[in-house]
Every structure is written in C-alpha cells, then in structure tokens.
Amino acid sequence: MRKINFDIDALRSFSLGMELGSFAKAADRLGRSTSAVSAQMKKLEEQAGQRILTKAGRGMVLTDAGEVLLSYARRILDLNDEATMALRGLALEGWIRLGLQEDFGEHLLPEILGRFARSHPGVRIEARISRNAELLGQVQSSQLDLALAWHSGGGTAHMETMGMHPLHWIGRSGQVPRDWSRRTRGDAEPVPLVALEAPCLMRSLATEALDRAGIPWRLVFTSPSLGGVWAAVTAGLGVTVRTSLGLPSGLRISRPEECGLPRLPSLGLAIYRNQAEPAAACRRLQDIIRQGIDDMTSPAAQRMSVPGRVMMTWEH
C-alpha cells in the first residue's frame, strides 16, 4: 500500500480552524485566503480518502474520521514544532528559575518541563510552586526569572498578560447545590467557605461579592496550600472560589443561577519577568508556557468534550 504523507501546512490550517471555531479566522491568522484554506481541507480529505467535515445547518461538524485526524494532526504539529525548536535551541545553555502559581503545578508543570527539556537539553530549570504574593516578591527580588501568576492589578515592571479567566463557585460533584438566595428570616445559616489562608485574592473577591449581595458567610476551613482547599471541598465541608484551570475531578462548578450565589468577576493571568529583555532560554520557556495555557483554555478543548459536535464556520 502506498504511504500517504499528510501536508503539514494543511494540518496546521485544519487544527487552527478547529481551535478558533472558524476557518476564516484561521486563514487570517495564517496569512492565507479563505479559498486557500478550503482547498487545503479538500486536499486533506483526498489524502484521508474520506470526508473529515460534513454540513450541519449553516456550519460544519467533524465526521468520525475528522475527529481521528484532528487528534493526530495536533500530535504531528507538536512534534514538528518541537523538532524545529530543538534544532534552534541546541546551542542554548544556562539555568532558569521558574515560579508557578499552585493552580498550574499539577497539570501544566510536567508538560512544559518535558517539552522544554526535550527541546533544550543544555538548559536547567529550577521550578518552584508557591502562592501569588510570594511569587511576585521573588521576581522583584530576582530570586525568580519567570513566574506564572494571577494578576490583581499590581505586579512587576516587566509582565505580559495572558488573558482573563472567570472565577466560579466550586463544590463537590454529586452534591445537590443549595439555593442560598431562598432564605427565610429564621434561616440564618451562612455560606460555608473553604479558602486559602490570608492574604488570598480569590478569598477576598468571594467575601466581597457575598457582602455586596447581603449573603452571610463563614470560613469553615482554611489551608496554607491549594491541595488542602481541594481536599476540604471534596469532603463536602463547603464551597470555594477558583477558576476552572486545574480543577480536580470530583469537584464541579456551581452556576450562580442554580446556587443563588452572586456572580463573580474574572481574574487576569500574567507572566512576570525580572528583566525587560530576558535571555534567549527564558524567551523560549515563556513561549512554551504561553502555548501550554492556550492548550488548557482553548475553546476547542471545551467543544471537543462532545465528539462529532464541533460546529465550524467559514465566516468571520
């Protein structure tokens, strides 16, 4: 049987189009015309020998074959980009001190360390997991070169924002959420809060939102570590406030309309540096962190939770 070599550029257009939810947006991002991307999709279908997209109303959805190809396309592109980075980074050497907020220690750290180590074997990384205030202080005192942390409006002189992430009320999976808005005069039970020890930005945002809504609360459990918070919520002691990033299994997001709790704001995420112009190795690591965050927050990651129902458009 003749071996088929899938076109890398076509796979990149396919993957990016699925990530953005629009092949027109992918064409703009890649500097191509929409018709050129359409031709690439036809080429992929010819190479695959079957349809990878099919019409659904006014949009397109993945076929079973398209879902399989998308999974492999992402892996092929990751290896291609990793190989490119590895060749460029062979001469890089040095030592990078990286700090990560606790939300990213379990899920993001192994991925970025593995990817960076394979691409830049001559660079050593010292990674620290800590809380926001400690990370920012260590960047400012030059104890860390880079730190990924939540942005509360302050920060350091050299930082790059990574987008906004909504905060959520989080409780134990399988636990019927109580509607705290339906209170009687005799019902004085406060909302049980699980939180990190002060100072904690998310704890402050949660209590401020409850106070504005006139809903009483009490701290039922505090912990110096995020792991302790997750354990207490999993045990059903109360609810906490976090983003969806790094949310453990066994916990669920409770929508404000179902639990009667106030809506919460979004929180910025940023990479903080101790220098305006970091060394080449730091810039490479920052790029890998940015890609890791993009992968965690990609709209496609949410849409792909329902196979074969990824709605696509060719419109802007």
TrEMBL record:
The keyword DNA-binding applies. InterPro entries: LTTR (IPR050176), LysR_HTH_N (IPR000847), LysR_subst-bd (IPR005119), WH-like_DNA-bd_sf (IPR036388), WH_DNA-bd_sf (IPR036390). Residues 6-63 form the HTH lysR-type domain. Belongs to the LysR transcriptional regulatory family. Keywords: DNA-binding, Transcription, Transcription regulation. This is LysR substrate-binding domain-containing protein. The keyword Lyase does not apply.
